Amino acid sequence: MHGLGNDFVVIDAREGAVDMTEARARAIADRHAGIGCDQLIVIGQSDDADVSMQIFNADGSEVEACGNATRCVPLFVGRDVLIRTKAGLLDAKSVDGGASVDMGAPRFDWDAIPLAYPMDTLTMGASWEDLPTPAAVNVGNPHVIFFVDDLDTVNFDRLGPLIEHDPLFPARVNVNFAQVIGDNHIRLVVWERGAGLTRACGTGACATAVAAIRRKLMTGPVTVSLPGGDLVIAWAPGGAIRMTGPATHVFDGEADWSRF
Questions:
Q1: Which among 51, 70, 98 is the end of a domain?
Q2: Residues 68 and 166 in one domain
Q3: What CATH number has the domain bearing residue 236?
Q4: Model pLDDT for residues 101-141, shown as the tens digit of each residue
């Protein structure tokens, strides 16, 4: 499945738990020797929701949230669902061509991002090279957002891993490079923690829209244009984030479990 080109291998574990390890997730995600994906998703049973969702990045690390994958779940299950994730409960409803997801309320405290030491997360007292002062938001996973004048001048491949692994971010961080291109309209490229550059990042779109609204750059709803397409993010201070966008089922298949 994929959401705006952010692609997933989705495993149905509702009728039988699977033994997913970091090494196995990495092997499945390998585009040359495995199946290939940005993230591996395991859909299982839950005591307090319709289903549970585990998310593994291509490097095998388990992460708390993935907005694009969350939109795929109602399509995968075949109905509206309440999903238990490491980031909390997420409500996902089917809409024409995709899904609308309540992503919960963003967090802004420095230790909720988390950062290594106290800092204003709206206008951080840190930056890298000639990038402007960023903002930080946790939307179930950690994000740092840079609003730049021209995305085409940014060296994502160099700056993305440099910032992701900076000691300021003890849990590493997703790095968002954003450019305001119109009223309530943002162009966005995301270097994802543990995955690198991807076609789209749903939580990155949420974090970036929230940061733009907090900085009074726009009021929303915000259209976020990623390389894979557009998401619409609605948020009001004090409330939950609502993300709406497409989700696509590509194919079903079987693989020999022992190969991984």
A1: 98
A2: no
A3: 3.10.310.10
A4: 999 999 999 999 999 999 999 999 998 999 999 999 999 99
In the chain, DSSP assigns E strands to: 2-3, 6-12, 39-44, 51-57, 62-63, 81-85, 88-95, 98-104, 135-138, 142-147, 174-182, 185-192, 196-197, 222-226, 229-234, 241-246
Question: Quick check: is 118 in a domain?
Answer: yes
Residue 61, C-beta contacts closer than 8 angstroms, at least 6 positions apart: 22, 193, 194
Looking at the annotation, which residues are catalytic?
A: 66, 201
- The tens digit of pLDDT for each residue in 206-242 reads 999 999 999 999 998 999 999 999 999 999 999 999 9
As for how many domains the chain has, the answer is 2
Distance CA 148, CA 260 (A): 41
Alpha helix positions (H), the chain: 22-29, 67-77, 156-164, 202-214
54-99 pLDDT tens trace: 999 999 999 988 999 999 999 999 999 999 999 889 999 999 989 9
Q: Backbone phi, then psi, for 102, in 5-degree steps?
A: -80, 110
Q: In the listed set 58, 78, 98, which residue is the last one of a domain according to the structure?
A: 98
Neighbours of 226 (CB within 10 A): 26
**What's the domain range around 80?**
2-98
Q: For residues 243 and 232, what is the distance between their CA atoms, to the nearest angstrom?
A: 6
| Tokens of residue 109, six digits | 């405290």
